[in-house]
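Sync notes, pocket subgroup
Present: LS, DG
LS reminded everyone that the earlier model was apo-only. Rerun requested with magnesium ion included. Inputs:
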Amino acid sequence: YQLIAVVPAAGIGSRMQADKPKQYLEIQGKTILAHTLGVLFAYPAISEIIVAVAPNDPYLPQLKFDNAEKIRFVHGGATRAESVLNGLHHINAKQRCRVLVHDAARPCLTHQDLDRLLQIDDDNGAILAIPATDTIKRADAAQQIHHTEDRAGLWLAQTPQYFRADLLQNALEQALAQGLAVTDEASAMEFAGFRPHLVPGRSDNLKITRPEDLALAEFYLNRKNT
Ligand code: CTP
Ligand code: MG
């Protein structure tokens, strides 16, 4: 089968509070998006990368990417799920394709992470995730602790998330049609009756979300390049 990466990059980065969407902020003189795409194109098994960006995005045309022939830019949507679904719509011969959906905002992904994830060969698919290490509190309406969740068996979902392209497209279409809250691809697959595998990831594959995440991502990217 063909392995295609779909990269949702159409968000506005509201929690980052920067003057532009966070995927266009620079680390070591290179945008976060370019770092992320660099990790993916350097992975030989990936034949194509489809990037979903905001329509009329003013930042993208100013950028140049290495290996641009492997990348296709398509329009994203109002939610992450719609951005991913639109990316999937641009894949031909879906029954013979597997997709790796990976956040533009996770530039510190390593090839070892990908190697581990791709070992799962199963229609349920698989995601990288890490067992929760902090104690998890459920809040009440007054933002006081209602109770403490049992941490055992709780995992934090990361990306990439790895599925058969046809199954994922059906699952996302169904979930969106039913108005379900789809915050990652696995949740759509779960609604469709699949049981995706949890593959242990690493905490350095962080999603850059808040301003303080930038320094940490820079540290990890530096470490990788030395
Ligand atoms: N994303 C997308 N389309 C959307 C919303 C999000 O492609 N309509 C992408 C983001 O660009 C990001 C990834 O999904 O690469 C993960 O989302 P998140 O970290 O929440 O990014 P934002 O939605 O941009 O940030 P925020 O929620 O803080 O506004
Ligand atoms: Mg968001």
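DG: The chain has a mean pLDDT of 95.
LS: The pocket of cytidine-5'-triphosphate (ligand 1) is lined by residues 8-16, 21, 23, 52, 76-80, 83, 103-105, 207, 209 (CB under 6 Å).
Action: DG to write up.
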